[in-house]
Write a structure and sequence with these properties.
- Chain A: It is a multi-pass membrane protein.
- Chain A: The chain crosses the membrane at residues 40-62, 105-126, 138-158, 165-184, 281-300.
- The complex is a heterodimer of chains A (334) and B (329).
- Chain A has 334 residues and is mostly helical.
- Chain A has helices at 9-13, 39-61, 91-127, 129-144, 147-157, 165-176, 178-192, 195-202, 207-243, 254-263, 266-269, 272-300, 302-333.
- Chain A has a single domain, classed as Orthogonal Bundle (MetI-like fold), CATH 1.10.3720.
- Chain A is built from 13 helices and no strands.
- Chain B has two domains: 34-83, no CATH class; 100-328, MetI-like fold (Orthogonal Bundle), CATH 1.10.3720.
- The longest helix of chain B has 38 residues, at 185-222.
- The chains are: A mainly alpha (334), B mainly alpha (329).
Chain lengths: 334, 329
């Protein structure tokens, strides 16, 4: 998907990347909020979609993940594609259910943390003055207090029986919103200065309407990118908590799988098929989301995008020049 | 207000917030940690006097008759004296002693690994961002895989490959147990050998973030006018890279140290567990499994204190590096 007219060699001649406006037909407002398709974005989308589908549909296709058999610790085979655990449970079946659990908590925490960061970041920056100072201080304090140790302490105090999915989600959200609140704060400060915001304030709009209708749409790419980060962080954080046995007591996630693998001595028994897939799943999902975020970054920071387009244009111009040179030599040869 | 004064007062507030959180958490959550702790103490043969009970109730809340603000004041007074209570899992050791013996392990491990990762990531990021569009630069998105890998899983994989299959490094522990800890060559060599895998885990998992941040800042910096001027003056590319582009691009990386340090400390807590490293993370998790609430809170306080201290140091340095921050006030 290029929105460039046939190569115009002029931009290529410039040594620096200028903020050249897109040469093609003007993109509509909403289109310009959507990232451009690149190979990396495609890989990211395929990874995210594939793993989400696996988490949604996988549990319907596999057997009971808890069923115990007398074939303990068998390597991957035709019957069990990912082998079995120490007690003969099907690793693939566990992986499917665990992926679903991890995605669930990731989504839940992502929404909660984004809502918190939007409140403290956007509302504080919009109101300004004392409230902004107070919110900023609050955000910065949460930013420097290390998250996971705090989560561990909180989970340690909650008795195991009352440690449900929501408890863990709330704890992870409360300890994980600060960084994106700061990003949103900075962005809101710049949006708030614009004339149309002032215009709607002068015309007597209520603060909430100004925020939701005038400011929020301009922050959508930033919020989307922060949401993606929050989901990654939540899945990683939950995996860490579950791995040390502090996760939700009624859920099966990728971290829980790793916890059982560690406690079943998968490492010293050499059962790589037990502990490699869950971590790889987290890593690939996180990578997919980060790649999607790369493209969102280009929407937020046009310099990055111009760079790519500039590169493309330069390459095209080079090709054109060579072509012309070839033709002219051919002509002189005649 | 003066930049340094402002920073100092911010960290004072952050410290106070951490102390207050520590005070509030056990009081807000269900469960009765004091009774569990005292029962455990009695099992170990300590006679529980009303004074011990009161000391723990101050630390963890519970059925104290005093109003909350008096509890809070007494709690702060106890902390100021360095009294964090007695550890149940290491009975009869004081919590502060348990922490002080394990703290150096973590500080050295995390400190060296973080500095290595930061230097490596910033250097690589500067090189990659300097010539955007080369094949090297097109590989940058793949570093996201490293950033998305759970620390402890990377640790498991490294332990499996390098320690179990290849046998290059010991699988667990912080030093060879036949040696006695001390400042002699043999012991330090052993500590380095045992610390290599945990350090490698932290470096691998955190280098991607540094690289990416630096690369993006380099790309933005390169389009600045002063770079164009430097090129027009005919300065050598090396000089522009070193004295013009990198120095300006590195500033956000330094300022973002707070966030990354929090991540690294969090990640290393669980990594230590994988390697049974004798650091503070292992103590924290041990405390959680043993319901050793006093030790748990003590470790949290110390980790927070260390992170706040490191950040204060970096912020003060930043004020020296970048004069604009001092002028803004």
């Amino acid at each position: 998907m290029t929105n460039l007219k046939p190569a115009d060699p002029a931009p290529a001649a410039e040594a620096t990347v200028t903020a050249a406006p897109a040469a093609g037909p003007a993109r509509s407002g909403w289109r310009s909020l959507l990232p451009t398709m690149t190979p990396w974005l495609a890989i990211g989308l395929v990874l995210v979609a594939g793993i989400t589908l696996f988490g949604l549909l996988g549990p319907l296709l596999v057997g009971d993940p808890r069923q115990i058999r007398d074939q303990g610790l068998t390597p991957p085979s035709a019957e069990f594609w990912l082998g079995t655990t120490q007690t003969g449970q099907d690793v693939l079946a566990q992986l499917a259910y665990a992926t679903r659990g991890s995605l669930q908590i990731g989504l839940l925490v992502g929404v909660l943390a984004t809502a918190l960061s939007a409140f403290f970041g956007i509302y504080g920056a919009y109101r300004g003055k004392f409230l902004d100072d107070a919110f900023s201080l609050f955000t910065n304090v949460f930013l420097v207090i290390p998250g996971l140790p705090l989560v561990i302490v909180i989970s340690g105090f909650v008795p195991r029986e009352s440690r449900g999915l929501w408890t863990i989600a709330v704890v992870l959200a409360v300890t994980g919103w600060a960084a994106s609140a700061r990003v949103l704060h900075a962005q809101t400060l710049s949006v708030r200065q614009r004339d149309y915001v002032a215009a709607s304030q002068v015309s007597g709009e209520r603060p909430w309407r100004v925020i939701v209708v005038e400011i929020l749409p301009n922050l959508l790419p930033v919020i989307a990118s922060q949401f993606v980060f929050a989901v990654i962080a939540a899945i990683l954080g939950e995996a860490g908590l579950s791995y040390i046995g502090l996760g939700a007591s009624n859920s099966a996630t990728l971290g829980t799988m790793l916890f059982y693998a560690q406690n079943g001595f998968a490492l010293s028994l050499g059962a790589w098929w037990w502990f490699v897939p869950p971590g790889l799943m987290i890593a690939l999902f996180g990578m997919g989301l980060s790649l999607v975020n790369f493209s969102i970054d280009e929407v937020i920071n046009p310099k990055l995008k111009n760079l790519r387009q500039h590169r493309k244009r330069a390459r095209r111009a080079l090709r054109l020049e060579r072509e012309l040179a070839r033709r002219s030599t051919q002509e002189t040869d005649r | 207000m003066n930049y340094f004064l402002r920073k100092l007062s911010f960290y004072a507030v952050a410290l106070w917030a951490a102390l207050t959180l520590n005070f509030a958490i056990p009081r807000m959550l269900p469960g009765n940690p004091v009774d569990i702790l005292l029962a455990k103490l009695q099992q170990r043969g300590e006679t529980v006097t009303p004074e011990t009970r009161k000391a723990y109730a101050l630390l963890l809340g519970g059925d104290s008759s005093d109003p909350l603000w008096i509890q809070y004041w007494d709690y702060l007074k106890n902390l100021a004296r360095g009294d964090l209570g007695v550890s149940v899992s290491y009975y009869p050791a004081q919590v502060s002693d348990v922490i002080l013996t394990s703290l150096p392990w973590t500080v050295v491990l995390v400190g060296i690994a973080t500095i290595l990762a930061a230097v490596l990531g910033v250097l690589l990021g500067a090189i990659v961002g300097w010539r955007p569009g080369t094949w090297l630069d097109s590989l940058v998105p793949s570093t996201t895989l490293l950033a998305a890998v759970p620390y402890f899983w990377l640790a498991l994989i490294l332990a499996y490959l390098l320690a179990r299959v290849l046998g290059w490094f010991p699988l667990q522990g912080g030093y060879d147990v036949v040696l006695t800890p001390g400042w002699n060559g043999e012991f330090i060599a052993s500590a380095i050998q045992y610390g290599f895998l945990p350090a490698l885990t932290i470096v691998l998992a955190s280098v991607g973030g540094w690289l990416l941040g630096m690369r993006n800042m380099m790309v933005s910096t390169l389009s600045e006018d002063y770079i164009l001027t430097a090129e027009a003056k005919g300065l050598s590319p090396r000089k522009i890279l070193r004295s013009y582009a990198s120095r300006n691009a590195v500033l956000p990386s330094v300022a973002g140290f707070a966030i990354s340090l929090g991540f690294v400390v969090s990640g290393s807590v669980i990594t230590e567990q994988v390697f049974s490293y004798p650091g503070i993370g292992g103590r924290l998790l041990g405390a959680v499994t043993n319901n050793d609430y006093a030790l748990m809170q003590g470790v949290f306080l110390f980790i927070t204190l260390a992170v706040l201290g490191a950040n204060l140091l970096v912020d003060l340095l930043y004020g020296l590096i970048d004069p604009r921050t001092r002028a803004r006030a």
